[in-house]
Every structure is written in C-alpha cells, then in structure tokens.
Amino acid sequence: TQHFIVIGNPIAHSKSPEIHTLFAAQAGIDIRYQRQYCPDDAASFAAVVEAFFHGGGVGANVTVPFKQVAYACCQSRGGLSEHAKVAGAVNTLLLNKALLNSGTPIAEALYGDNTDGQGLVNHITSLGWPLDGARVAIIGAGGAARGAILPLIQSGIGTLTIANRTVSKATDLVSELSAASTSISQQHITTCTTNELSGQFDIIINATSIGLSGETLPLNDALNTRYAYDMMYGRTLPFLEHFSARGAQTSDGYGMLIGQAALSFERWTGHSIDVVQDTKALNAK
Ligand code: ATR
C-alpha cells in the first residue's frame, strides 16, 4: 500500500481522499490517502511532513494555509519545479529521488511542485473552450491568479489582462513574474482595476476569493465574454450567474480540483488518469 496525505487547516472538508481513491481504482493500485490536520505554523508543518516521509509516505498534497510554507520548506531542501517557483506556492510534495540516491537524508530531499494552474488549463481544455490565441482576462492578483498565469501563457493564449481591486498588486505581480520567467516576460500583459475591465473577451477567470464572502465584484456593463470560469466551487457563484445571463458558457472550479489532483497522482505514481471518467463518478455522488 502506498501512503498519501493532504495537509491543511481546516482539513475535514477536503475531497482529495475520495478523488485519489477513485484514481487508484482506475490505475489498479493499492493506496491509502488521508486528511492530515496541522497547527498553523511553519515548524509544525515541517514536523508533519518529515514524520510522514520518514514513515515511508510517497506523496503529500498541501492546501490552505500551507502552500507558501511548503514552498519555503522545499526551497531550502530538495528543490522546486518551475511551476512551483513561478506560483510561489507548492501543492504537491514528493521526495527528490536523485538526491536520495546520492545519500541526501529524507528531510533534506523534499521537493515541491504545483499542479493547480495546469489543472485549470486541463479542465478548460476538456470543456472544449479554445485557449489557442484566446483573449483571456483574470480577475484577482493573489495566490490563485499567480499560479494560473504561467500555465495559461504556455497554453498559447493570445492576450492576457489582469484586473484587480487593488491595481498595484496586479502590476507588481506582472513585474515579479516577468523577472522570474521568460515566457511571461514575452507575453503582452495589461492590467487595470476590476471595474475598468471592459470589452469583449473569450475567457474570463475569477481568481479572487470573493465567492466565499457573499460580496459581488463591480463588473463593468461593457464587459462581455464567451466563457466565464470561477475557480471556486460548491455554492452558487454570482460571477457565473452574471455572465450566464449575458449568454456566456460557464464553469465552476470543481474540475480544476480534479485536474490538479490527477496531475499530482501522475507525478507520484507514474499512472496517467482519465479525468472525465472519474469526474462523472464524483458528480454522481
Ligand atoms: P488567493 O490565494 O485565494 O488568491 P489572496 O492571495 O488573499 O487569496 O488573494 C485574494 C484576491 O481576491 C485578491 O486579488 C483580492 O483583491 P485585492 O488584491 O484588491 O485585495 C481579491 N478580493 C478579495 N476580496 C475581494 C472583494 N471583496 N472585492 C474584490 N476583490 C477581492
């Protein structure tokens, strides 16, 4: 049996165990995937992770509020993937095999990846929404937006606009990411405030945390899109209702959750997953 955990605080609501259990059944392998509560401090996080991998654990997912803490842990140990570096956050932990083979202790071989943004792109692709050459707008400039930018650019989008309540956070994010990645510095990116965002887009993505607050975004009446995506899921999302009423196709972020999980599972086990098959099973629950 291969052991996996998802570390978070709170963690009781996490759907990762049921998602990964379905993946394991599809791949025909025997796994145990558990929710792991952790006190909200960096030392506790490092202790939980070390105990897990010393006990023979294969891989761990990291969720709120530990993605940046996990990034710092891996940076000073076994390293980070390019996506984790650009996102400034880690959602997938594993051990760096090359380091282990060269005699590095387990605790020093911790390696971090980030599959959130690619999970989003894979879900958008599976919906049949064309990304190649698309005019894309992201609303939000926090962690969720940051993780989506490199995978979206790598998918071949045409133009990218980043809108945020605090526009300086959007411009700072673009400068920072352009310095970190040549694919990002070569992409023409414009920024504006959320209510200034207007005109016709192909895909608009809500990457703010507003879905949780009950507030609504101040969307411009001259803003239109063919497709609207909200990274949140599990409740009625005013952002999606707004664009649905204006004729757009919409999706919440549940498929992104499944998409990032599939990429983590593949990274850990080498088995690739037919996400569509398991999405049907999860939706039927
Ligand atoms: P996450 O990791 O979910 O992205 P975050 O890093 O705290 O969380 O970022 C939250 C994002 O939601 C930010 O873009 C924030 O806008 P500001 O940068 O202006 O703070 C946005 N956000 C949160 N609440 C909002 C609200 N009530 N109206 C508009 N934007 C909001």
TrEMBL record:
<feature type="active site" description="Proton acceptor">
    <location>
        <position position="67"/>
    </location>
</feature>
<comment type="similarity">
    <text>Belongs to the shikimate dehydrogenase family.</text>
</comment>
<feature type="binding site">
    <location>
        <position position="91"/>
    </location>
    <ligand>
        <name>shikimate</name>
    </ligand>
</feature>
<dbReference type="Pfam" id="PF18317">
    <property type="entry name" value="SDH_C"/>
</dbReference>
<keyword id="KW-0028">Amino-acid biosynthesis</keyword>
<dbReference type="InterPro" id="IPR046346">
    <property type="entry name" value="Aminoacid_DH-like_N_sf"/>
</dbReference>
<comment type="function">
    <text>Involved in the biosynthesis of the chorismate, which leads to the biosynthesis of aromatic amino acids. Catalyzes the reversible NADPH linked reduction of 3-dehydroshikimate (DHSA) to yield shikimate (SA).</text>
</comment>
<protein>
    <recommendedName>
        <fullName>Shikimate dehydrogenase (NADP(+))</fullName>
        <ecNumber>1.1.1.25</ecNumber>
    </recommendedName>
</protein>
<dbReference type="Pfam" id="PF01488">
    <property type="entry name" value="Shikimate_DH"/>
</dbReference>
<feature type="binding site">
    <location>
        <position position="116"/>
    </location>
    <ligand>
        <name>shikimate</name>
    </ligand>
</feature>
<feature type="binding site">
    <location>
        <position position="231"/>
    </location>
    <ligand>
        <name>NADP(+)</name>
    </ligand>
</feature>
<comment type="subunit">
    <text>Homodimer.</text>
</comment>
<feature type="binding site">
    <location>
        <position position="253"/>
    </location>
    <ligand>
        <name>NADP(+)</name>
    </ligand>
</feature>
<comment type="pathway">
    <text>Metabolic intermediate biosynthesis; chorismate biosynthesis; chorismate from D-erythrose 4-phosphate and phosphoenolpyruvate: step 4/7.</text>
</comment>
<feature type="binding site">
    <location>
        <position position="63"/>
    </location>
    <ligand>
        <name>shikimate</name>
    </ligand>
</feature>
<dbReference type="Pfam" id="PF08501">
    <property type="entry name" value="Shikimate_dh_N"/>
</dbReference>
<dbReference type="InterPro" id="IPR006151">
    <property type="entry name" value="Shikm_DH/Glu-tRNA_Rdtase"/>
</dbReference>
<feature type="domain" description="SDH C-terminal">
    <location>
        <begin position="253"/>
        <end position="278"/>
    </location>
</feature>
<keyword id="KW-0560">Oxidoreductase</keyword>
<dbReference type="InterPro" id="IPR011342">
    <property type="entry name" value="Shikimate_DH"/>
</dbReference>
<feature type="domain" description="Quinate/shikimate 5-dehydrogenase/glutamyl-tRNA reductase">
    <location>
        <begin position="131"/>
        <end position="209"/>
    </location>
</feature>
<dbReference type="InterPro" id="IPR041121">
    <property type="entry name" value="SDH_C"/>
</dbReference>
<feature type="domain" description="Shikimate dehydrogenase substrate binding N-terminal">
    <location>
        <begin position="6"/>
        <end position="93"/>
    </location>
</feature>
<dbReference type="InterPro" id="IPR013708">
    <property type="entry name" value="Shikimate_DH-bd_N"/>
</dbReference>
<keyword id="KW-0057">Aromatic amino acid biosynthesis</keyword>
<feature type="binding site">
    <location>
        <begin position="164"/>
        <end position="169"/>
    </location>
    <ligand>
        <name>NADP(+)</name>
    </ligand>
</feature>
<feature type="binding site">
    <location>
        <position position="233"/>
    </location>
    <ligand>
        <name>shikimate</name>
    </ligand>
</feature>
<feature type="binding site">
    <location>
        <begin position="14"/>
        <end position="16"/>
    </location>
    <ligand>
        <name>shikimate</name>
    </ligand>
</feature>
<dbReference type="InterPro" id="IPR036291">
    <property type="entry name" value="NAD(P)-bd_dom_sf"/>
</dbReference>
<dbReference type="InterPro" id="IPR022893">
    <property type="entry name" value="Shikimate_DH_fam"/>
</dbReference>
<keyword id="KW-0521">NADP</keyword>
<feature type="binding site">
    <location>
        <position position="82"/>
    </location>
    <ligand>
        <name>NADP(+)</name>
    </ligand>
</feature>
<feature type="binding site">
    <location>
        <position position="260"/>
    </location>
    <ligand>
        <name>shikimate</name>
    </ligand>
</feature>
<feature type="binding site">
    <location>
        <begin position="140"/>
        <end position="144"/>
    </location>
    <ligand>
        <name>NADP(+)</name>
    </ligand>
</feature>
